[in-house]
From TrEMBL:
SMART domains: AAA (SM00382). PANTHER family: IMPORT ATP-BINDING PROTEIN, LIPOPROTEIN-RELEASING SYSTEM ATP-BINDING PROTEIN LOLD. Transmembrane segments: none annotated. This is P-loop containing nucleoside triphosphate hydrolase. Belongs to the ABC transporter superfamily. Macrolide exporter (TC 3.A.1.122) family. It is an enzyme of class 3 (hydrolase). The lineage of its organism: Bacteria, Pseudomonadati, Planctomycetota, Planctomycetia, Pirellulales. Residues 6-240 form the ABC transporter domain. Keywords: ATP-binding, Hydrolase, Nucleotide-binding, Transport. GO terms for cellular component: membrane protein complex; plasma membrane.
Amino acid sequence: MAPTVLAARGVTKTYRKGAVAVPVLRGADIDVAEGEMLAIVGQSGSGKSTLLHVLGTLDRPDEGEVLYRGQRIDTLSRRRRDAFRNTELGMIFQSYHLLPELTALENVLAPAMIRYGVFAYLGKRRQLRERATALLERVGLGHRMTHKPRELSGGEMQRTAIARALMNEPRLLLADEPTGNLDPTSGDGVLELMRGLNQTDGLTVIMVTHDRAIAALADRTVTLVEGRVAEEAEGLRVQG
Ligand SMILES: Nc1ncnc2c1ncn2[C@@H]1O[C@H](COP(=O)(O)OP(=O)(O)OP(=O)(O)O)[C@@H](O)[C@H]1O
């Protein structure tokens, strides 16, 4: 059994809209094993994105703990959480979140610029550009390096976002409805790419989806029900 790389313990999260409290997570527990591809499913509004954001330190739980290799990460300062995300995690989103004024290559380089700071970045520029170029080639975008996001298709934007997520050599890829805005063919390409990164490079992947056919590509599926994480029986997942 592979060791746990990321875990949530008893996580609660309630959003407040005026006087109304909306409890979203009510004691969620999850263990993500090193090297697995895990799908998180659940009805719309069940808290899938909230859980992913908490696991990825974009959001803090009200109660409970988030652990990375056994160390608390939810209690880190904002600065250390930013650094943690920059070096250990790659994240991709349904709407890509690329910087519109930058080319595909510059978007992929951005995490390295943040990691090293401008001066150190300039010193390593050649090797970092080589890495970014190789990543874009790997995701099939060798011919789109100088295109800006508006000049790319949805599938190409998501591939660029994946290349960017890989720039700082993360151990984990967190994906929130990565194919939600894509046509089936582009979506399949993005999923194949993620599966390949998991199987060939050993990247641990956590993917939120509302689509059980997509979840069936993962090694394991968990469901969010009433703010808690329910493990699915193997047969249930296959039947979808
Ligand atoms: N920042 C916020 N402020 C207030 N309410 C929020 C906030 N973020 C999420 N919510 C509410 O929390 C609930 C869970 O949202 P979340 O996006 O985690 O669900 P989800 O399972 O990912 O949904 P979907 O599949 O529709 O994307 C929803 O009712 C949502 O309206």
